[in-house]
Amino acid sequence: MNKVKFSERTLWVSITLSLLVIVFALSIQKVKAISTDGEKYLQILHEVVAYIENDFVEPQEEKKIYIGAIQGALQSLGDPHTRFIDVEEAKELENETKGSFGGIGVELNYQENSFVIVAPIEGTPAWKAGLLPQDKIVEINGKKVKSLSQAEAFAMMRGDVGTSLSMKIERKGIKEPFLVNLVRELIKIRFLRSFYLPEKETGYIKLVQFMGKETGKELALAVKNLRDSGAKKLVIDLRMNPGGLLDLAIEIADLFLPSNLEIVSVKGRGGELIKSFKSEVRENKYLDIPIAILVNGGSASASEILAGALKDNKRAIIVGTQSFGKGSVQSIIPLSYGAKVAITIQKYYTPSGISIHGIGITPDHIVNPVSANEDEKYALEKLFKKNLIRPFLESHSEFNESAIGDFKEILKKENLKISDSVVRIFLFNELRMGSSQSKPRLDLDIQLSEAINLLK
After folding, report:
1. Ordered DSSP codes for 81-146
2. I need a surface site. Which of 153, 202, 261, 425 has the fewest CB within 10 A?
């Protein structure tokens, strides 16, 4: 009996030791995957950290030094979408996918020690404040972004509904950074809205983001209702749409394409084809209605996939300005101690084989919106600095000729000049900020007007 127990014990000890040897061998194998140069620079890194801890003039937190080193390694790749995610940020990302949260409502990229706005989400505080694609957030509540971790910066932008924050913004074409004050709101996004424009026999669909479980069905129903109302052509507005779910972009593209046409392909390292997504055979497609898609610098990711699919398959014309150029797939890889890393592992290609990443979608018809020139930008900036804009907007709830006249009186008193067309567009955009339900105005939206005229 004792011999049996001894044999069993010996067997279990042998198995345990064997497993430990295997695990140890696998660990050694993993370590050996680091090159000689890699080992050399890891040693140098440890030496540098030791000197920082012992000799740097100000005491430093060891965790912050190592996180900075990790972020530096990832930033050296030149890809803003490959990044380190600590535990706190991972929780924030989980909140973001649930559809409602307290914040300011922007899609962001982190690059060159600042957050770059991809697009403000329509109807949110960032949208109401007039933030634009490519604006750089360089300070949050007086703290420089470059001195914050990404998780700290995200946490500062989030907060209790009704609380305020300030951000310093750098914008191309404006010499000095300017402050923007925002009040956090519960971000509840209505992803889609549609209007029938009877004077042009045109259906208009504004897609704010490629999110929401029912958005694909809602868009298909919107197209049906617009057709039933008399729409003979369709405009899909993807301006300021930062993207979202790939599956939803494919579902919407499929709605307008004959079967067995490529929608988008995904390629990995060395151009290896990972997967090709094609349109399917299904009922209730819309294959004959002429389509125009509006894009601009705030159209990214899933927006570019949809625009590229319909453009390359000769199913839609693209109107507007160059899109953002975010066409890559990130894998979120768990690391030790609950941290994660997002690494770009694949890129999206349009049916014609063009990579979206870093390039974007070039419109068939480039149409620039009416915008202020340098003198007019200076005039508006001066009005903001003198705090004349906000009180005016608070006292004028509607866009009409009376509001336009009153605004021109302010310009006259301040001895400033802004063209009538810029005044009208500025006020229309500012006064509709409180509501994302405004029907599009063809007289104020040259891109939409031109898109409709181009459709046959």
Report:
1. T-EEE-HHHHHHHHHHTTSEEEE--EEEEEETTEEEEEEEPTTSHHHHTT--TT-EEEEETTEEGG
2. 261
Q: Which of 117, 104, 131, 108 is nearest to 429 (CA)?
A: 131
Q: 192-366 maps to which CATH number?
A: 3.90.226.10
The span from the CA of 34 to the CA of 26, in Å, is 13
Pick the CATH number of 83-188 from 2.30.40.10, 3.60.21.10, 2.160.10.10, 2.30.42.10: 2.30.42.10
Active site (annotated) includes residue 301: yes
Choosing from 114, 194, 265, 301, the catalytic residue is: 301
Q: What is the pLDDT of residues 411-454, one digit of tens each?
A: 999 999 999 999 998 888 777 654 445 688 898 999 999 999 99
* Residue 312 annotated in active site: yes
Catalytic residue, chosen from 86, 254, 312, 445, is 312
Domain definitions of the chain by residue range: 36-76, 83-188, 192-366, 374-454
Give pLDDT tens digits for 218-252. 999 999 999 999 999 999 999 999 998 899 999 99
- Indicate which residue of 326, 328, 347, 445 is catalytic: 326
Annotation says 326 is catalytic: yes
CA distances from 390 to 164, 320, 383, 431 (A): 16, 30, 9, 11
State pTM to two decimals: 0.75
Instruction: Tell which residue, 356, 364, 256, has the closest CA to residue 319.
Output: 364
Give the C-alpha separation, 386 to 329, whole Å.
45
